[in-house]
Amino acid sequence: MTALLSPDELEARLRDIGATRYHNLHPFHRRLHSGQCTLGEVQAWALNRYVYQACIPIKDASLIARCDDPALRREWRRRLADHDGTGQAGPGEADGGVARWLKLTDGLGLDREAVISQRYALPATRYAAQAYVQFVRERTLLEAVASSLTELFSPQIIGERVAGMLANYSYVTKETLAYFDKRPPQAKQDSDYALDYCKRHARTAEQQHAVMEALHFKCDVLWTMLDALEHAYGEEGHIPPRAFRPGQFPALPRND
């Protein structure tokens, strides 16, 4: 890439990456949304995805720690609070996205302590999440911001996920999926800011290329996590030692 793109051309390139590389295209997600996954596969998805959810506030704190722009720090502090909570939730309320994800794993019959420990997660899940945190710690601030741009595409996948899972799994309720209630507006606010930041600060062809590569990297992180789930819990079933096994926790009661 040698030619400098206009800001709108850069945005178009970024959106094209999402259209062709985002993990809503992955076969595992297609099966998850269409009701083709077993209870064990749904549990494995939620348990492994917790590892990623738990790493988000860590990578956000890493970005804040190396940022000398107060406006950017304020924006990322809001993200940190969205995921980690503020400590001000009322009785019975889940404070922050990480806590709401635990409501999801609770609703799927998973032991909360086991989920939080991450000891039953797939090795590839843990490595992918760690790679994301490391990327944000070590790459340029522009690349770190750009790696969050998958949120441009998350409202679409959330809509598909909620509708599909409610329609196809009798043990899934709106309360189980309450995590996703707040995410579409949060993701839009997050991605609007990050996209504008990248369009304003990627001033050379090399910087624009780095922004696009950062988004490619993040798409690869999310795709790798689903590859691992498909390999371990799909038709072939190659579950590594120590990882979660379907039936490991008590089965959920059926209401169909």
Helices and strands: which structural class? mainly alpha
CATH level-two architecture: Up-down Bundle
For the report, how would you describe the main beta sheet? none
Shape: globular
- Per CATH, the superfamily is Heme oxygenase-like
**Number of helices, where a helix is a run of at least 4 consecutive DSSP H or I residues:** 11
Q: Determine the fraction of residues in helical runs and give it as a percent range.
A: 55-70%
| Integer average pLDDT | 92
Separation of the first and last Cα atoms: 55 Å
Function: Ring cyclization and eight-electron oxidation of 3a-(2-amino-2-carboxyethyl)-4,5-dioxo-4,5,6,7,8,9-hexahydroquinoline-7,9-dicarboxylic-acid to PQQ.
Organism: Acidisphaera rubrifaciens HS-AP3
GO molecular function: pyrroloquinoline-quinone synthase activity
Family: Belongs to the PqqC family.
Could you describe the 3D structure shown?
By secondary structure, the protein is mainly α. It has a single domain (7-233), classed as Heme Oxygenase, Chain A (Up-down Bundle). Helix content is 66%, strand content 0%. It contains eleven helices and no strands. Helix 3 runs antiparallel to helix 11 and helix 7 runs antiparallel to helix 11. The termini are far apart. The relative contact order is 0.19.
